[in-house]
Every structure is written in C-alpha cells, then in structure tokens.
Amino acid sequence: MEIIKIFDTTLRDxxxxxxxxxxxxEKIKLALQLERLGVDVMEAGFAAASPGxxxxxxxxxxxxxxxxxxxxxRAIPKDIERAAKALEKAKQKRIHTFIxxxxxxxxxxxxxxxxxxxxxxxxxxxxxRSLCEDVEFSCEDACRSDIGFLxxxxxxxxxxxxxxxxxxxxxxxxxxxxxxxxxxxxxxxVGDLAVLSVHCHNDLGLAVANSLAGIQxxxxxxxxxxxxxxxxxxxxxxxxxxxxxxxxxDIFGNLDTRINTKEIYASSKLVADITGIRPQPxxxxxxxxxxxxxxxxxxxxxxxxxxTYEIMSASDVGIPQDNGLVLGKHSGRAAFxxxxxxxxxxxxxxxxLDSAFEKFKxxxxxxxxxxxxxxxxxxxxxxxxxxxxxxxxxxxxxxDSNGVPYAAISIxxxxxxxxxxxxxxxxxxxxLKTIDRISGYNGVLKDYKVEAVSEGKDALAKVVVxxxxxxxxxxxxxxxxxxxxxxxTAKAYIGALNSYLSMRSLIIK
Length: 509
Ligand code: KIV
Ligand code: ZN
Prior knowledge:
EC 2.3.3.13; alpha/beta; metal-binding; manganese; leucine biosynthesis; three-stranded antiparallel beta sheet; binds 3-methyl-2-oxobutanoic acid; TIM Barrel
C-alpha cells in the first residue's frame, strides 16, 4: 500500500474564496473536524497576511494533535519567521514557502531575473529549514513555467532542504495529459529526493482530473479543499479525489489515503455552514442530490440491487442513513447525547451540550418533527459561537397604516438592555437599521441568504448574512437559526457584528 498524503488548504486557499472568510473560533472548529477527517497536513493560514491569520494558526497549533499544521509564507525572511512563530506550539509543523517561476510572473509581477528567483527560493528554504524540520516549497505558476528552469529550481531547493516540492497549476490552465507530463519530467529529475505535490485550480473544471494525472505520474501529495473551495473557480475537491481513489482501486491499485471517508459529509456541512457557501445540489459526493434517486426506473433498480445505480454508498461518506424523525420532546439528555455522537459531534464541552439540549427542548415544543438536520444546525450554531457582545432579547415587526414596516428591537450589551425602533424599505431593512441605531455601528449588507434546514411548513429557517462594518475591510458572516425568518435575520446580523468585534483588533489597519 502506498499512501497519497492529503494536504488540506481549506483554511488558506479555501478562505481566499470570495466571501469565505472565517473568524478564529470557526477556523478552530474546522481544524478539529479536518483532524477527525484524517488529513495529513492542514494549511491553517498565511501567518504574515494579518494578525487574525497569525492568531488562528497559533491557536490551531495548540489544539490539533494528529495532523501537521502548516503556514504559508512568501519567500521573504519576515514571512518565514512569522510562520515559524505562529507554528511554535504545533506537535507536527510545516513551513510552506513559495515564489513564482513562470516567465509572466517573473517579468511582470516579481520584476526579477530567473537567477534572482532561484537565489531567493534557496535563501527562503534555507531559512525555513533552520526554523522547522519540514519545509515545502512551491513554484507558483509551475505549470506555465519553462520545464528546464523548473528542474533547476527543484534541484536547488531540494539541496537547500525542501522535503516536498509542490507544482501548482495556479491558473487552472493545463489539461490532464499535459499536467501528467510535467510531473513525469520532474519525477525523473528529482527521483526520491523529495515528495512531489500537485495543487490544481479549477478554472477549466479540470482540477480533479489534473490532480489524478499528477498522481498517476509520480506525485505523492495532493493539495485540496473541502467542497473545492478556493481562489476563483476553486481548488481540487478533497471529497472527489479521495472517493475516486477509493472507488477505482482497479485503476489506482495500491494507492490510498489516510482519510476517514465517513467524516466527509460532516466536513462538507461544516464548511458550508461556516462560510455560507453551499455546494451545488448536483455536486459530486456532497451535493444534496449526489445519492438521491428520483426516477421510477432508478428507484426500482435500487430496490433490487443498490449497485444498479450506485457506485459507492452514501454511508461511505457519512451521510446519515435515516433522515426520519429523530427525537421528540420526551427524549432525555442521554438519547440526545447519543444522537449528537452519531452526527459527529463528540468532545463537546458540558456548556455547549447543556445549551444545545435546552434549545432542542424549546424547539420540540414548537416544531412537530425534529430531524437530524435540525439538530446539526443547532449544534453548529453552538460550537461556532463567538463571544456575544450584543445579544438579541426581543424583536417585533409591525407596519404603519400605509404598510411601511418598522422594527422594534431590544438588545442587551454588558447586562444592560437597550430598545429602539426604525422604519425601513421592507422588514429586513427595518431590522438592520434598528440594530445599527442601537449598536452604534453602521453595517453594509453584502450578502443575505435564507434556507429551510429541514422539511415541512414549520422548518427552522437558517439565515446567513455577510456584512461589512468598516469600509474596505473584510466582511463578516453571521448565522441565525429560528422558526421565524425575521428573528433569524436579526440573530444573523448581530452574529456578524459580534464576529467583527471579536476580530476587530486582528484586522490590519
Ligand atoms: O495556486 C497557487 O499557486 C498557490 C500557491 C501559493 C501554492 O496557492
Ligand atoms: Zn492555490
């Protein structure tokens, strides 16, 4: 058996996806889930990018035990030193440094001669090796670089101490056969002196196919993200490459990963819940319809033999098998805890468990049927909770005689409740305006999504808002869960404000 290392970059390249920024608590929660999933390396961020990234990497380094934690660093001393510092507490650590090697990047972006690029790469790797045993080097835009130059850089950085050589298709340009040939050439050049790695972007929809071509030609590390999140069209989707290797053993023979595939669904859900970016319904492996059989002919075949229409089973990727009624208002704490464990929520603090149980009981009083998805939503809200500077106490929506809506809201801060009201262009606008008046912040709404968590007219509404509280600074995501959409909206907007306040000191001014 030969292991393909899974290098997950959801927390770094994934977070670069437009609108996918996460706060520190959310990143820690996701890092723990990636550890459960069994990734070999997780790129937890880019330490020099912002104090927020630095803080997230160092806190993840403290809590994750079984995966190596990695920080990205440009090939400059200050970045590499920052990465090493952020990783100080990690049990297993890796510094990942990079510089571009393609003619277009060297001439226009770096304004450097190839000889200077090699020198910088070697210096960066040497410095990184003096601070960390495990160093990865990436030739950014490798797949549009001159192959001879690529080999020269490869041998130089390996000599300087790089143990992994990553060859990204940074702009998602290559076709599988071309990418396979690049890896083959490099493999014949470096042999076993370093692990070759692929990092593919999906601009032409070929990231997964290209990654597999890389593996078939000698790459032994695969860089990928949950749900294929990432810059522009995203990166290679972890769940797809892992399930291809598992399902097509006839082609990939003795190649395998250490991924616990039963954690795939929980990982995908968590990323979607945190970022508010849901995979499309027909997305392979984790889309809502990936294992749904709609037509009568298919259903008939499935009942006779699942393999008529299924090449892998939903349970292999951890999709809960019974999405029926789960628990009711008479269920006790022990049954609730068992259900949480079956949904992958283990290692909960007593506080989180108590608070979720209380919310579950309240929900049972209001909602006839409580599904797995309701419980999952309640728990995700609980475990990604950030310090509540502002807390919603009450919300009432009315309209005047002309039908103009107004919101009356009471919010608590530091134990003191404040009440105000405002009219708006619609109920949502009235709610946000009132919250702004009470809090003294002026948010700009960048995105607003509502979805039903489960089935039925009494389904819980999950609202995700993205709002900017400082001009030209990152927008923050907030989540609100409630049977009433407008209540959920207020909770989500206040959540985004709380998230901003918890990260404010960590945003680069
Ligand atoms: O796509 C890319 O080239 C990258 C590098 C920084 C590895 O993300
Ligand atoms: Zn990338």
